[in-house]
Amino acid sequence: MEVQIENKEEEIERLLDGLKNSKSSDWEFRDTYNPIYSTGKGLNKAVVEEISEIKKEPDWMRRFRLKALEVFQSKPMPNWGPDLSGIDWENTNYYNKPDERKANNWEDVPDQIKQTFEKLGIPEMEQKYLAGSVAQYESEGVYHSLKKVWEDKGVVFMDLDSAVKNHPDLVKEYFCKAVPMTDNKFAALNGAVWSGGSFLYVPKGVHIDMPLQTYFRMNNESTGQFEHTIVVGDEGSSVHYIEGCTAPRWDKDSLHSAIVEIYAHKNSNVRYTSVQNWSKSVYNMPTKRAWVDENAKMEWVGGSLGSKVTMIYPSSYLRGPHATTSNLNISLAGPGTVKDTGAKAIHMAPYTSSKIIAKSISIEDGKAIYRGLLRMNKGAVNSRSRVQCDALLINDESQSYTYPHDEIYEPSGTFSHEATVGKIGTEELTYLRSRGLSEDEASSMIVLGFLDDVMREIPMEFAIEMNRLVKLEMGKLGAVG
Amino acid sequence: MVELKITNLSASVDGKKILKGVDLTVKGGEIHALMGPNGAGKSTLGNVLVGHPDYKIEGGSIVLDNIDLTNKTPEERARAGLFLAFQSPIAIPGVKISSFLRTAYKQLHPEDKTNVTQFFDNVKKHLKKVGLDESFLSRSVNDGFSGGERKRFEILQMAILRPKIVILDEIDSGLDVDALKLVADEIIEYASSEVGFLIVTHYQRILKNIDPNFVHVLVNGKIAKEGDKNLALQIEEKGYDWIRS
Q1: Domain B3-238: CATH class, spelled out
Q2: A460 touches chain B (CB under 8 A)
Q3: Which one of A169, B117, B165, B174 is most buried, by most CB atoms within 10 A?
Q4: ipTM for the complex?
C-alpha cells in the first residue's frame, strides 16, 4: 500500500514537472504542410465519387457512399440541441490527402508530419505505453504499427482504408452495423465522405495487456475530418483502445464528424478511452455506439476538453444476458463553448447493468449539458442502472443543464439518478491558499478533486494530460469567482 | 529573529467592525495565548491574519520579519511563514492528502530538494505522532473527517510545512484527552527559538498541556488585559466578566 502511494506520487510528480511550462501552443500550433490532394470546397455527388476514386475502392463502398449522401441531404439538421448554424457546409473541405504512403515506421512518414506528431509526443508514448499505434493526419492514416507479438496472435490494427483492402470480409461483417448511415444526419455525412479511422480486431481469447491508440490531427482551416473506427473484441478477448485528438486554432471553423462502432462479443471486455482536445474552432459531432453481447463488459471513458461545440452520447446496446457497461465522462466547457454530452444505455436482455458517471465543469460563459437516455426493454428482467451527474460552475455566468430521459418498460428493473451542482467556494480557496497555493493552483486543485473519481479510471498518462489541460484552462482565467 | 508584529489592527466583516485596534507581538521562541469570551473577535483575528477575503482590514498593520503582510494575499502570507490551524477546516472532496501536502510543501519551500520518498517518510513519522494511520494519506482533505481527525490533520500540516508563526484557533475542541496530549506534544516539539505560537482559545484546557509565556485577553475587539499563565488560571476560576475592555 505505502509503496504504491510513493511510486505513484513520484511518477506523477516527475510527469508534472516535465509539463510545468506547457501551454496551449504545444498542441494548437499550425504547420505549413500542404495536402498532396484535396477535393476542394463543398460537397456534392462528384466530390463523393472523387473520394471513392482516389481510394480505389470496391464498388459496394462507392454505392454505399452515394446512398449515404442522399440520406445526408434529405435529413434535417438536429434542432433540439446546441446552435449549429455556424457550420459552413459550402466552405468546408471534405477530403485532404496528406501523402501517398502509409508508413509502418516513423522514418517513412513525411518529415513535417512526423515532426508534428513528435511535438505531440506520439512516438514516445507508443514506445513506452502502447501495444500498437495509428496516426491520422487530415483525412488519412499516415502511420500504423502493431507489436509483433500481437500480430502473431491474429490481432488486426490499421487504418480502416487499409483494412477495407486487406481484410474486406472482416470489415464488411461490421461496417455500419451498429451505426447505420440512416441513424442521424452526421452519421450519414460520415457515410458519404468517411476517410481514415482505425480498424481493430482482437481474436477469440486474446488479452492485450497494453492499450492501442489512434491519434487524430487536423491541420488546415475549414476542413472536415470524418474517420470511421471499428473495434471488435471477439469472444472472451480483452482490449483497451485509446483515441486522442488535437487541431490548431483557426478563425474559420472546422468539422469533426466521426463514427465509432464497437462490438464486444460474448465474455469479452472492451474499454474505449478518448481524450478530445480540439481547438475552439472545431464542431465535434461524432456518433459512438457499442453492441455488448452476453456477459461482455463495455467501458467508455471520455474526456471532452476542447472544441467549440461538442455533441456526443456514447451508447451501449446491452444485447445479451449479464452484459454490463459503464460510461465515465468529463466535460470541460470553456469560455464560449458548448458541451452537449451524455450517454445512452439500452437494456435489451435480462440481468444487464449500466453505470453512468458524468462530470462537467463550466468556465465563464461555458455551457455544459448532460443529455442521456436510459431504456429498459420489456423482458430485460432484473436489470440495473445508476446515473450520476455532477456539475461544477466556476463563474457566476457559467451554465449547466441536465436532460435525463428514462424509458422503463420492465417492472423488475431498478434505476437511480443523482445530480449535483456546485461552485468553487471562498472557504475552500482560502484554505488551500493559506497553505501557499496560488489562486489558480487552488482552483485547479479543487476542480481536479471534483473530477477525481473519473480521473482514477483513466490511464496515468492521460490523467496527467487532463490534469495539465484543466490547469491551463484555469490558469487562463486569472481571477476566479 | 522571527517576529510577528500586529499594530493597531482593526477589521470588519459584512460591514460590522469586529477588531478595534489590536496590538500584539509574537516572537520566535514565545508561546502566546489569546483568550476571550465568545464574540470577542478571537476567530476574526485568525481569519484576518490568514488573509481571508471576507474579512476587511480597516486600519493598522501586520508585519512579519519586516515584511508588511497587511495587504498581501493568503498565499503570500503563507510563503512569508504564517500558518493558521483552522477552527473548522473545510472539506475538499477528491483532493488527496498526499498530493495536497506535497504541493503545499513545494510552494512553501521551493529551495528544498527533498525527494518524494524522503518527504513521505517524514510525513509518516508525524502521522504516527499525531495518532493517524498511514492510510490517511489516500483520503481527501478533511473529507468525512471526525472533529478530532480535522484537528490532528491541522497539526500534522504544521509539522510538515514548518511555518515561522503558528496560529492555533481552538485547536483543543473536538479532541479527547489522549488526542489532546498527542497534539500538545507535537506542538511542544515544534516550538523552538525559530517559531512563535499564538494559541487562540476560549478555555484554558490546552494550556494545561502547554505553558504559555504570555496570556492576552481579547474583549470587544481589543486586548483588555495581559499577563502570564496565572492570568489563564484566574480566568478559569472567575470567568471573563471581571475583565472590562
Answers
A1: alpha beta
A2: no
A3: B165
A4: 0.97
